[in-house]
């Protein structure tokens, strides 16, 4: 059985007081689904959030990390630093990191290796731009992103990886891939895994959808057989909305 996962990416939102308030709202929510729940606060809020949620089933994860173990990388944070405060999962390759911070597939392959060497699980994000979909090249684009960053790995590494398909045109735009478009791409991603790594890697991989998931559309998207959960941006900033999505399974 594949894990269902709903992860909230707070992006660069919530100062200390706002994050404390959101965490206490999250703690008041009732979970009726069996999905794994994760939240990704900013670096400055990670420490108090891990402390605050120690006895909660919500996993606190990071939005990014550097590929180097330590050194002269001003402004960056390493895997070991994250692990030292109890953060064992990190988002890698979010489209905003790719677009605004020039993260390339090659750089992401290095981050992937560092995460695995540091025994960190990661959510690997990828997805096509609107122009790719208009040119009907979305499958080639997505296959290349996955292959360049991940296909140097051994099959055994994939148990520490979660994939998140996030069409760039649907992130923060209010525009969502239709449930059928999401299913079609998730099925293609699973087939891409199967062709190289075989059935067990493909069948066990949790593939999340991200891109304007809201309480109103989550149930239909999550009902698709190859969609195993969601990476949620805007709707993760309100506890009630986030849990309406968590409970959409
Ligand atoms: C995201 O940031 O990964 C995301 C999917 O954002 P939103 O839900 O706001 O589109």
Automatic annotation (TrEMBL):
Main location: cytoplasm
GO biological process, any: glycerol catabolic process
Binding-site residues, substrate: 9-11, 172, 212, 233-234
Pathway the protein takes part in: Carbohydrate degradation; glycolysis; D-glyceraldehyde 3-phosphate from glycerone phosphate: step 1/1; Carbohydrate biosynthesis; gluconeogenesis
Catalytic activity: D-glyceraldehyde 3-phosphate = dihydroxyacetone phosphate
Purpose: Involved in the gluconeogenesis. Catalyzes stereospecifically the conversion of dihydroxyacetone phosphate (DHAP) to D-glyceraldehyde-3-phosphate (G3P).
Subunit structure: Homodimer.
Similarity-based family: Belongs to the triosephosphate isomerase family.
The protein's name in its UniProt record: Triosephosphate isomerase
Species assigned in the record: Bizionia saleffrena
Gene that produces this protein: tpiA
């Amino acid at each position: 059985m594949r894990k269902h996962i709903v992860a909230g990416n707070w992006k660069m939102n919530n100062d200390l007081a706002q994050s404390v308030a959101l965490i206490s709202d999250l703690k008041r929510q009732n979970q009726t689904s069996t999905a794994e729940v994760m939240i990704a606060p900013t670096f400055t809020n990670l420490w108090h959030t891990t402390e605050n949620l120690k006895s909660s089933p919500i996993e606190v994860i990071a939005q990014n990390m550097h590929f180097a173990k330590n050194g002269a990388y001003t402004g960056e944070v390493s895997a070991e630093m994250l692990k030292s405060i109890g953060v064992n999962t990190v988002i890698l390759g979010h489209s905003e990191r790719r677009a605004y911070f020039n993260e390339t597939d090659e750089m992401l392959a290095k981050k992937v290796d560092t995460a695995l060497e540091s025994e960190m699980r990661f959510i690997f994000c990828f997805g096509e731009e609107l122009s790719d979909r208009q040119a009907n090249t979305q499958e080639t684009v997505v296959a290349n992103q996955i292959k360049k960053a991940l296909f140097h790995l051994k099959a055994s590494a994939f148990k520490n990886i979660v994939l998140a398909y996030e069409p760039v045109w649907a992130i923060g735009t209010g525009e969502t891939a239709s449930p059928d478009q999401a299913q079609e791409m998730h099925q293609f991603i699973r087939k891409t895994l199967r062709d190289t790594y075989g059935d067990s890697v493909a069948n066990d991989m949790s593939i999340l959808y991200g891109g304007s998931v809201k309480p109103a559309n989550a149930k239909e998207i999550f009902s698709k057989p190859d969609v195993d959960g969601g990476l949620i941006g805007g709707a993760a900033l309100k506890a009630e909305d986030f849990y309406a999505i968590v409970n959409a399974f």
